[in-house]
């Protein structure tokens, strides 16, 4: 029996003594917070092992030494005050001892103040959108695992389903604040090495932060059941030294400049049907196949088939519009800022001619740039820049800024007509629900302590010029972005009018596109 007892004690002690070497144990990660979480985990593990050792040790001892074969006679007692007090006080003390380090760690995890960098993380089915505040950089990060590996026709790679086309790049030794939200359903941004796991809820903003201690590539994934392709939504973070991070920022600006030049050149190019179909298939498999399936058949009742559908058989303009601007109330996203004009032209051509559709239609980049997008999209797309690049990737580059300014001036010269109050409110609500609602909420009440309320706020009740300045140029050091280069003059005028008159603000103020142009001069 002694051998049995020794074996049992060894099993109890082994997890706590060798936990750090066990492959299934929690890892320490690469941040101070992840280290605190690991230490908290080990403290709780040691307490559980001690409790297990004590409880099972007493139980086994009693079974061995107080068994019937040894002539033991069971005691007959009840309603022992001492026992009642003991099994109430002792667990209470244990819980207090566990709560103290746990509370300290939780408080540290929630303290995102004094951040050096703020990044907005937006989840959508099934990709992540990253926006670097104060750096004017944004991009989408998509799964890059080849479809052949997913379908099993090729051997799985080392980072199967944990690789992306564009990783999130962060500097080490800097406090990075994350603002998490979603475009559609609930997602969860989870990187175990950082001990960061935070839900991204549509219409709400959650906060998290990290400070990475050493360079490297760290992987995670969406930890919320967000749809049928939930497992195809990975996260990859590349941590660089501060010097390398500055080099990366410069490379992004240079890439934006080159992409703008390529976008401009694409407007004069005419691709053959074969080239469009080849590129269109690549774009479709990367961006569309998850919903509409590789064979275009969709999922009945969930995602519509593209084989002989009304969109495919209808006018090209309608097809372009839904790809560029999406379809509100459905899972169909707007790809105007996710794909280049050439890519959109190619995928529309592919969809109209694949799977036996055989329409014979070809779409070129110039058709996308000058086509039939909604007013919000088409007004900015005369040079193809908003379609080709996320707005933030166009910034910080003199060439890009000049082109955007020229485009805006050309557009505004064409459409500076005054709108009625009802027209401004209708357009303003659309712009607000697209660009502002994630922070300030649909009711304008914001999120106390994070994003200010717009209901009778000083900005709303103050001079219109101050309101214009805030929307156009943002507010440094806060999450308020500059929308002067993201929205048209008419959209800015409409959203300001909406904010000053919605939610019982009722200022009666109206702002027109001409006011925006005059303010910017």
From TrEMBL:
Signal peptide boundaries: 1-19
Membrane topology according to the record: Multi-pass membrane protein
Regions that span the bilayer: 43-64, 85-103
Superkingdom classification of source: Bacteria
Record bears the keyword Secreted: no
Alphabetical list of InterPro entries matching this protein: CcO_II (IPR045187), CcO_II-like_C (IPR002429), Copper_CuA (IPR001505), Cupredoxin (IPR008972), Cyt_c-like_dom (IPR009056), Cyt_c-like_dom_sf (IPR036909), Cyt_c_oxidase_su2 (IPR014222), Cyt_c_oxidase_su2_TM_dom (IPR011759)
Keywords, sorted A to Z: Copper, Electron transport, Heme, Iron, Membrane, Metal-binding, Oxidoreductase, Respiratory chain, Signal, Translocase, Transmembrane, Transmembrane helix, Transport
Domain Cytochrome oxidase subunit II transmembrane region profile, first and last residues per copy: 18-113
SUPFAM superfamilies named among the record's database cross-references: Cupredoxins, Cytochrome c, Cytochrome c oxidase subunit II-like, transmembrane region
Family listed: Belongs to the cytochrome c oxidase subunit 2 family.
Function noted in UniProt: Subunits I and II form the functional core of the enzyme complex. Electrons originating in cytochrome c are transferred via heme a and Cu(A) to the binuclear center formed by heme a3 and Cu(B).
Protein name per Swiss-Prot or TrEMBL: Cytochrome c oxidase subunit 2
Protein species of origin: Shewanella hanedai (Alteromonas hanedai)
Encoding gene, per UniProt annotation: coxB
